[in-house]
Amino acid sequence: MTTTDAERAAMRRALTLAARGPRGVNPQVGAVVLSPSGEIIAEGWHRGAGTAHAEVDALSHLTPDAARGATAVVTLEPCNHTGRTGPCSEALIAAGIARVVYAVDDPGEKSSGGATRLRAAGVDVESGELQGDARALLHDWLTVQQLGRPHVTVKWAQSLDGRAAADDGTSQWITGPVARADVHRRRSLADAIVVGTGTLLADDPALTARTPAGDLHAHQPRPVVLGSRSIPVDAAVRRHPQPLLHRPGNDLRAVMAELAELGVQRVFVEGGPTLASAFVDAGLADEVLSYVAPVLLGGRRLALGDIGVSTITEARRLTVVSVDRLGDDLLIVATPHNRGEN
After folding, report:
1. pLDDT of residue 315
2. Most C-beta atoms within 10 A of its C-beta, which of 45, 94, 147, 310?
């Protein structure tokens, strides 16, 4: 059985509801309950870890037996495990739901299986409705489920000849204001921004995401500083609106796993050549942003250092996703060659 027009419209509504929920450890999920005649009788969304899942939230607005024979339209496969809350599959069965339409399969080993459980109970189940739209909404969360860590973007600014700074160490500003505004916009889309103590001590960055006018963007990435050196008590990063996380940084995968447990889905690495090289060398760069300024600097201060390549056959091959003109500068966005999409 294919989906109806009413179910398709309900899925669009469910996606809108899902976007109201917070990004974090749990996915953003929306749910709509349709009467047997196709009218919306309840809706809900997930409001964060520990709160009712979207399906249960929607059912909570109905009187007992009001959902019997109804259809639940959900953006993600109903879960089938007990965590902080009970399994949604069982809640739907107990409510008497006759049909479930969902967009994306749950990739979790523990939480998946809801569709199988529902079918075993005699519930009609249809999957894949508006799957592309749902996957776009859940892209970063799905990446965390697939990789076991957040999606990592590594950014650097360089001269045309590949230098991150002049020979005396000065680097402000290689790129122009349009490129810098783009960096801040991308910072605002991340859940965490990562730098090393070397950059922190040299530049005292605030690590906030700001508009060209100097105002803070509505969303601010959590500042993460990696390195064994201490952070000064008067450092600008200590005035960041989000709590500071300081780790030694000798195990990048452990730090990324910790961030995933904290609900971080997207990481923006902006810590200079040493840190950028470490992430690339560790195979943790899912996306590279290279801002290229039309200047020549020469000298020793390369944008990247050692990344474990000793011969050309070991080169880290990238696929160029886009090349954009930003004022006088270029932005090249690339991803590791042959890396699969989520």
Report:
1. 87
2. 45
